[in-house]
Amino acid sequence: HEFWLQRCSIFMQFSRGPAPHVLMKRGLPVIWSCIALLQTQFLPAAGGLCFSDGIPESQRINLTNDDGESYPVGIWVPTWAAAVATSAVMEILVAEKLGFLTVTGGGSSSLDGFFAMAGCETPTEIADRKCGRKKTYYHLHLEGWTDGYRAQWSQLQEDYPDTAAEIVGSMGYQGLTGQYISREVIETAYAQEGLPLQFYRAHNVSWSNPAKYFDNISAFKATSLKRCNETRLMETKAMEDYLWVTGDWDGVDNTSGKLVGRCFSEHFWFAPSCRADPLACYPYINAGPGYEYEHWMQKSTMFNIPLVIVVAKLWSDFTTLPTQVKSSFYWWQPDPTFLSLDAVRTLFEPFDRAAQGRGILLTDFEAISVDKYASFDLKSLAPTVYELLSAFSLDLNLVNELMTDQMDSGDTPDVVACRWLKANKAIWEQWLPDPTECYPQFGLYNEKTKEFVEDREDPSRLTCRACKSGFYSSRLKESSGVTHVCKPCPPGTAQPSGASLDCQPCPKGEYQDLTASKSCKRCDQGTYQDTQGNSQCKECPADTTTLGLGSAALMECGCKAGRINIANESEAVVCTPCEEGLSCPFSSSVQSLKTGQAPLGPDYQPALHPGFYSTMNAPLVVFKCIEEGFCPGGTPEVCSGGRVGQNCAVCPPGETLYGNECATCNNSTIFFWWFVVIWALCGCTCAYYTTNPRVNAIASARQTGGISVGLAIKWLQTVAIIGMMTVTWPPSVAGHFTTLQVFLLDVDAFSFSCFVSEQASFRYIMKVSCFPLAILWMIGNFFFSRFLPQRLQWQWTKTTNTIGNLIQVGFAVMTTVALESMMCYVHPNESYSLVKYSSVTCGEGEQVTMMVAGVSLLVIFVIGFLAIVTYATFALPSWSSRMLRERVQSFNFLTYRFRLDKWWFGLPLLLRGPLMSLVVTCATDFVDVQVCLIVLVLTGYALIQATARPWKAPILNWMDLFVSILLIQIAALSGLKNLKVSSFSEFYSQSLLVLLVCTVCTMWFFLAIALVLELFYGLKAKDSAILRVFESRGQDLGEMLVAIARALQQEEVSQATLQRVFDRMNNHDLSRLETSLELLLTEFMDLNTGLQVPSMNSTRWRIQERAIRRASVLATDTVGAALPEDSESKIDTLDIMLELDPDLPVPDEYKPIQDAECLR
Asked: Residue ranges of the alpha helices (H) in 860-953?
């Protein structure tokens, strides 16, 4: 027996630690062996039971959770005596009266039990209790001191609300702490002088001498006491409160700079009432660091109690000293430590929480509730156990009786509990529930079949269990009494939580078509249910749907995304498709579009996209703004920057656009435009003197600089036309294109409306009039010059050349302006507006007026000028050969920039801009077409330019070719679909524009250097490395030709030999050789020898014929005989001579007329 008792004792110690499921895995056989041994040895009832009619172990059952897992009822037993005694009583009742298998575990504090009940796997491991499990193996916990761990209890409820334990109620008594005095001392004092020492006032030395009934400090050995510096006398805050309440400076010590309690003889603190005579003090024995030390300091001082406070060194000293020395001592109940003394607690004034919160500790200690706890699932798993726990109640005397019996008998807690149960049947029988008397929320359950039943025909193995989800508890009245049974929920209802008295009808938006359901189903998308308790949902009207599942009203059926409700709020929903530019999320309506507020919130607010516009009167008629920044979108009739009107295209009357905001027109703007007009007129006049240069075969640095300015303007105009494409450029790039529009006479960004009119048509007509007015101005200047001295009079040929030059520079601008009146883009509502004047609707009166002006400009000045230029281009060789000087000079603007054999290049240069503008006009709404055709135009021009190399200055040929490549890149880049959002595209397009500007600046920089060298150092154009970059010098070619001629003469090469050589050359080389020989024949060879030139193509023959005729005139021995004698003819002849060879010596008879005026 000793062997098995030792093993069981060891194992029971072990069983306090692990969770029950670990226990069962590690030593289930040992558990049952120990239980059987203990029952055999210590439980006096038959069969190892406490009660003769107790349920034997073989018939006991486990708990079974919803997952089907079975385990015994777990009882958490704290290590102190009262908890062990009461838990033993509960365990016997659960096992033998209710028929459940049980298992126990325990810890040293109530807090461990809280965590164990919450399902933590290692509840006693403070570092990591491993909580979070959704089930628990401990279901009962008795004798818990909740108030001692109030903060931790609250935190546990917050952290684990689903599994935290619940307080079922009080144990029936309270936990008491305080000053205790043995019954012997109490009765002696009362017998001798009627002194009631159980009341604090009887300890006041002013009225009595209580110390005579106690031993004094001489009864203590120093070795059994703690020194003062090991106690709470060293706690500064406690001593500060003591000093503040009592004012007893002699009871504290501040010599070290830190306020502490004054220590007497290293171990004692004496109250003021006996400090002068320490032997007149009676002892108060404390434990630990001196529990509530400051309480007794304040009480003894303020109530004049002759107390000396000592603290036992060890726990063993604390438990023995009160039995050896007549003294008062610190103690709590229930606890068996000093039960043998039958001690009585000294009573003070009732507990004052507010005063003690301020540090005034003169009232009694608070009585602490001692509670019992149930796991979160006990009520549903074992309702009878839960009812037993709820009814379980003992008073403090009964608990003391249990602990005293155990101390006196030395029996185990189970034996003592069994003995108590047999002796107090009348008490505990009231705790036991009727197993078939089910309360509301529960129903009859057959433990054998594991099913709920609806009657008590076979009461054996019946118990009560909480109704599971999908069932409800229904009242059942039978002859044997009233109970409750669990019934399934009918269709249209559900019960999610279980343990319920009824089934919940499915709420609005849900349905259930099955019985015994735990939850209702949400209505599918496109359906709704506006009443409760239904088994089906209703369908939404046509073209409508619901936002998601579970719609609860017809109003939740809204138009599908991409459609909008055009009906009034009181009418049935009428959905219509949304146009481009309008965002229509689910349940959009015209009302919410107008108000900007949607019932479902901002995520379901219909709104115009940025860049689109509509009016309040017709919010679904959507217009597309020409620039996204004009129209922020959102609600109708909202514009940015103060703009107003259709498409947010104009500023209010009296205002103009400054940057992105409308602002009031001012006088400085009007003054600026008058300055521009005057400057432009003066510029036209000055053009007469700058656009009629002498024609040379080799352009000087000065001429090259002038040509480069016009060429740069052409480049920038081309970029501006690319910017007119209906492409959404990145904002950083779009700003540059907007600025360059000034080269296309797009002056609205410069407050032009303040100068002329706010009406779009009038502003357009003024722009159209600029070109005719400029021509009239030049003609007027010509006639005005007739009244000036002869040397200041203008020549008609030069005047017409100047007009042609001005029209040529502005030809792309003129074409673009003319086409602006016809450049319409389509709106989502299928109406059209002008691209440049988006406030003007195409097809209406204002646009018709503008188109009349534009067509007039197009027909008369654009097409007319183009027709004249085209005719002149083809006629120039003939005019030149026929010596029609006036005609040639009138069209000098077409040829003076180009090599004489490429005089026709002015025509493709002229056509590039208009063709691009025409593409944008004809394909305004087709970006892909615009991109393809504009790239085609630019590529064609680049090919012609690269092939012809027309510019007189080679540097201009290279620059023009390079810029043409850049322009093709910019145009092609506009075709990217993600141009606006692509960071690379934005960076690349910016880089191209910057590179273009750098190219222009670089060109002008080198031309400036060439001009300086020409003016100040006399460097001729033919010798300038800058102007003739990558080109051969004439001297080098001359040496090469002479060497070739000598070699051919010495070798006497035949034509057949040369033909064989030419047959081996490729076509490109032959073409270049042919061109070189033609130049030699026309420019350098003496053509008077009757040399017969082989037949060539007509264009080249005209060039050669012109050069031959001019050369023939100059080769005549007597120049004067071939020339008219009048001075005008001599000037003409001199012009021809200098054009062919600027270095030709002038005959003597021409020198008198060789002055600066004639040459100019």
From this structure: 864-881, 885-890, 892-895, 906-922, 927-948
